[in-house]
Amino acid sequence: MDILKRIMGYVARYKWKAITAISFLVLLISLNLVTPYLTKILVDDVIRGGKRNLLVPILIAVFGCAACRGLLSYFRSYLFEGVSQKCLYDLRNDMYTHLQGLSFSFYDDNRVGELMSRMTGDLEGIRMFIVGGLSVLLENAIYFIGTTIMLLYLNVELALVTLAILPFIAWVAIKFNKTIRPAHSEIREQQANLNTTAQENIAGVRVVRAFAREDYEIEKFEKENRLNQEKNVNASFIWAKYFPLIEFLSGFCAVALIGYGGWMVAIGRITLGTVVAFNGYLWMLIMPVRMLGWIVNIISHAITSGKRVFDILDTGSSIKEKSNPYSSDEFRGDVVFENVSFRYKENPILFNININAPAGKTIGIMGATGSGKTSIINLIGRLYDVTCGRVLVDGVDVRDWKLSALRSQIGIVMQDTFLFSDTIEGNILYGNPDASREDVIRAAKIAEAHDFIMEMPQGYDTIVGERGVGLSGGQKQRIAIARAIVKNPKILIMDDCTSAVDMETEYEIQKALKKIMKGRTTFIIAHRVSSVKDADEIIFLDNGRIVERGKHEELLALRGRYYELYMQQYKDLDEFQSDRQVM
Ligand SMILES: Nc1ncnc2c1ncn2[C@@H]1O[C@H](COP(=O)(O)OP(=O)(O)OP(=O)(O)O)[C@@H](O)[C@H]1O
Ligand SMILES: [Mg+2]
Fold it and tell me: For the whole model, what pTM was predicted?
């Protein structure tokens, strides 16, 4: 009920349109209700009573009713469709806006295909309810009430006898609803699964081909597809059982009318016209009763879909802004970690991290894969919240910051590069839509991307595919670096952003970056010592704990983990150099 109420909340935004549509509907039905009564007059007064002069007015009235009905019907459909499309538009926008605000952890837990199916199929389910269900429900309710009143008006006794079966029909419909609802729920879930499978397969098509797992993928899809088919067939069976039963039960009404009505006419208690009109109304009444199953179906669809949509709309972001968040025009870029511990759900990742990065300084972060480097830098822009301790930016806890103000000052090159299907320039501008072409080129030059971009057929206007298809790993990384640079942020975070480029290009990038790193707090995560050796402080992580820290020379003097790594990476080079010196 709550879900329907919420859907109605969207309809209520267009209440005048909806009310007009409903008024048209009421008018339409009233006109329909006139026709059987006209047939009563025709039979009783014209045919049997001999008032021939009434024939033409009755015909005109019947014709007039039909014409008006056509017109009203057109406007009614037009208005209902309009309202439903507007509601769908609002809902879709609300959903999309809400998805923008949800935290990383939400996306860790939800699959893309599943979300896509909620954005499409489930929203359509709700729209169907508004355009179909709601108008059909209203139409049939009005028919039901109107015809019942007319029947009672014509003859109470005959009405009660013919309608005695109705409570049974209602009971069957309610029972049907109970069986069909879970079946629909299952269908929706299964469709989401099917979507996810298809989406993952297409997104991962290169892995599938490379590992020659097409057969496995086809089988996986077939399985989901079969389940989908079975669940739909199952629902159809429930339907198939329901319809004949309703048909059979409504047949009783006709039997009662012919039997009891015929007898009443025979003994002269009612006129023949009454029975004829009764017959007309009865069919009008049976119609809504038959439609009950359909209406129940649409409503149960809407409830299932509505629940899935509103579930997302009700998911609060785990990252919430304070009611009166902090923001400042003067952003310095001091970053401090105070006894920070962090876990993903139950899985502790970082332990008691302390970092002091005054504005303009560079911090290098090293450590084995999985040691928690990315997790640390994710806390600065509050992509996740700390479990214990605090992260301060400019002396203010990031949880007190206005998120947009904080993040607008952070430029981040993520570890796995994501590019949009847009031009190269568009991708770089993503960091700062107001930047000029010159800014884009300058950023691309710093990222050592300019040369290869110029070699592309359309230069900066070359369109790259989804996720940057058409570029090499190193090229993508360099565009991502340019994207972060063009933002001109006070805090620059580079997560292993040169892992895919060769040593020489990396060296060139670092040389260029040094110039722009002045005045910015920079975090460099790297596996190569050469990337971090000039940092003001290097932090060495092991299993979420800082095990060594200091400047390059200090860490070398320590002869610990960093030194070991250094020796591994420089051994060959040193040997080469000492060989040359000997010669
Ligand atoms: N979204 C997540 N949900 C749960 N656990 C996660 C998530 N992301 C990372 N982890 C876990 O947290 C730990 C640290 O991951 P993190 O990405 O910080 O490592 P890293 O030091 O950046 O490694 P790499 O050098 O490979 O990038 C890993 O054990 C990983 O399994
Ligand atoms: Mg990482």
Answer: 0.79
